[in-house]
Amino acid sequence: MVVRDRLLAFQERHPITPERYTKIAFAALVLLSLIVFTGAAVRLTGSGLGCPTWPKCTETSVHSSLDTHGVIEFGNRLLTFVVSAGTVAAWLGVFLVKPARPDLKYLALSLPLGVVLQAVIGGLSVLFQLAPGWVMTHYLVSMVLLIWAFDLWWRSSRSPEEVRAAGTDRTLVIGMRVLYVMAFVAIALGTISTAAGPHAGASGTGEFVGRFDWFGDDTLRLIIHVHGVVVTVLGLLTIAAWFRARTHGSQELRTTLLLTLALMAAQGVLGIVQYRLELPAELVWVHVALATLTWVGFVHGRAAAGRLPERAPAAREMVGQTA
């Protein structure tokens, strides 16, 4: 009771406006995106084992040696503390928002907890010598964290009533949710492609890292083919969703879909070029960065479509008669 009273008193003395909190939530989203980019850079520079153990960098030291790969890996670990500070600020700040937003508290809490989970997964991936399964999990959990971070920012910029508002078109809302799931599948297939490719993450330090070789020498080619088919279908369905949104969706959704399509087009061109150039690390990094932004686009599209509206009375009666 005393703690609660002190918290309420602190809130009265140091309130945060909804607009200011939205900026804090956006900063957390940016930081969580940034560490995905730097994490990809660690892998693509072959610095994944620049710190060969965890939680220390070496057996005897918390910090790295002065060689390039050690500095890159240790720098990425240090960035984790910055990201942690940003997510903790988003969590603590939600208690100071006035008027209060209790609907955001658990979502805000998920961010620092997710960062802790990511630190553990990252540490385990190092301890297991960058085993592909651990590295894939590390990236995919980052994508889940971006869902939570985006939702926190998006919801904080709107009133609770706006957040709960149903979409204007049931077909479009369902379609955006299907695209959202397909986009995650495409991301997962992309991580499998990387796990079968030449960028194991430790080329700079010389350690051997196992790769996926389920189909022998054809593994990478087959996975990239499947990935390409899924992404092509995803792109065509996204175009269909944009046409539907032109007459049944909001301006926010139309703009989001258009930007997402532009990112997908850039990804398609880049994917072909990097494959023909035998996957140079620089282009793969750009591909990963654009994939992350494209994923955020689909997360935004799902949110902008709104909640699933009720069926029209006539449709409900028809369903009942059919049953």
Automatic annotation (TrEMBL):
GO terms for cellular component: membrane. GO terms for biological process: heme A biosynthetic process. Keywords: Cell membrane, Disulfide bond, Heme biosynthesis, Iron, Membrane, Metal-binding, Oxidoreductase, Transmembrane, Transmembrane helix. The chain crosses the membrane at residues 21-42, 78-97, 109-130, 136-154, 178-202, 222-243, 255-277, 283-301. Pathway: Porphyrin-containing compound metabolism. InterPro entries: COX15/CtaA_fam (IPR003780), COX15/CtaA_HemeA_synthase (IPR050450). It is a multi-pass membrane protein. Pfam families: COX15-CtaA (PF02628). This is Heme A synthase. The lineage of its organism: Bacteria, Bacillati, Actinomycetota, Thermoleophilia, Solirubrobacterales.
